[in-house]
Design a protein that fits this description.
Elements: H1 5-11, H2 24-28, E1 34-38, H3 44-52, E2 57-62, H4 65-78, E3 83-87, H5 90-97, E4 103-109, H6 127-136, E5 137-147, H7 150-161, E6 166-173, H8 182-189, E7 195-201, E8 219-221, H9 227-231, E9 237-240, E10 243-253, E11 256-265, E12 268-278, E13 284-288, H10 298-314
Parallel strand pairs: 1-2, 1-4, 2-3, 4-5
Antiparallel strand pairs: 5-7, 6-7, 8-13, 9-10, 10-11, 11-12, 12-13
Length: 315
């Protein structure tokens, strides 16, 4: 299913191009309660939810690009005006995109359970996620988790309730729900159990943000590195604390070179390009390419600085 260009234009947000945290009034052109669905899949529930609550605004966050495409098409066909979509990792973006006490409800349905112990930091039940909820949700408002894994629901109940700002309201098996996606209905027909956990914020506790407001700098090299030195970047890896960067590919471009990079701030990873621009006076510029523009995290800044240092040493 391919969305029309207007679907992506109307529904896909590019928060990395905005001042953060987002101001919902600027996104939707009105003041209204704001809810977020984390991991909306094909957008079935998000579409229904927005249709049932026209006086609310909704933002869905999802990582696979094909989910964004399917949901945008669905929302366009339904004519929803109160929904926007964000492509990215909600474990990181939920805190970075939304201000303290700005959300009325956060919904997460059937997340990846990450059953192995070494992957526990990815789970919704992590202390970091609990701290995020205690920040972005208004006091008295809810986080709702729906899963088909009983151990996952129980672990989330235990660990989220350990945060003093949060209170578990209920954990129910096969609760009545006004809308079920086709996959949820299929699982119930197969005899699988569904669990819903509701957690409320008692008091708001601020959590630190990672993104600053400073612009991304352009590095100036006094002399142009040789093509061999630029090609030698391929495969190089840099690490400093929780920041990791790796050069995935080096490509020639019309004005110089493109370097494809993977940068990771702990568990938050981004692929982007750095552009090496060759100047006529033998100087060159090194900057982050704007398409696709990454979030300017510490790892992205570290990646650019590391490239610049290696190239400078090669001259």
């Amino acid at each position: 299913m391919k969305p029309s260009p207007s679907a992506l234009r109307d529904y896909l947000l590019q928060p990395q191009e905005s001042v953060l945290p987002l101001l919902a009034e600027q996104v939707f052109g009105r003041r209204a309660p704001l809810a977020v669905e984390v991991g909306f899949g094909g957008g079935e529930y998000l579409d229904w939810w927005a249709g049932q609550n026209p006086d609310w605004d909704f933002i869905g966050i999802e990582l696979p690009p094909d989910c964004i495409l399917r949901a945008a098409r669905r929302l366009e066909q339904a004519g929803r005006k109160n929904v926007r979509l964000v492509n990215g990792d909600a474990r990181y973006l939920l805190r970075e995109l939304f201000g303290a006490g700005s959300l009325q409800h956060v919904l997460m349905q059937f997340p990846m359970p990450w059953p192995k112990g070494k992957h526990a930091k990815h789970r919704v039940s992590s202390p970091i996620f609990a701290a995020t909820l205690a920040d972005v949700l208004k006091p008295g408002c809810c986080f709702e988790l729906v899963t088909d894994q009983d151990w996952y629901a129980q672990e989330a109940e235990t660990l989220l309730s350990a945060n003093p700002a949060l209170q578990v309201l209920s954990l129910k098996e096969n609760p009545k729900r006004p809308f079920r996606t086709r996959y949820e209905s299929k699982w119930l027909q197969e005899g699988r159990q569904i669990y819903r956990l509701l957690v409320t914020v008692k008091t708001s506790i601020p959590a630190p943000r990672t993104l600053g407001i400073q612009a991304m700098e352009t590095l100036h090299l006094k002399l142009t590195p040789t093509p061999a030195a630029i090609e030698a970047l391929r495969g190089q890896r840099f690490q400093q604390g929780n920041c990791v960067a790796e050069v995935k590919e080096v490509l020639r471009a019309q004005d110089g070179w493109l370097v494809r990079l993977l940068a990771a701030d702990d568990t938050f990873s981004q692929l982007f390009h750095a552009r090496i621009v060759l100047k006529r006076d033998e100087r060159c510029l090194l900057r982050v390419d704007e398409v696709p523009r990454p979030y300017y995290t510490a790892a992205v800044r570290f990646a650019l600085a590391s490239l610049g240092a290696v190239l400078q040493e090669s001259i």
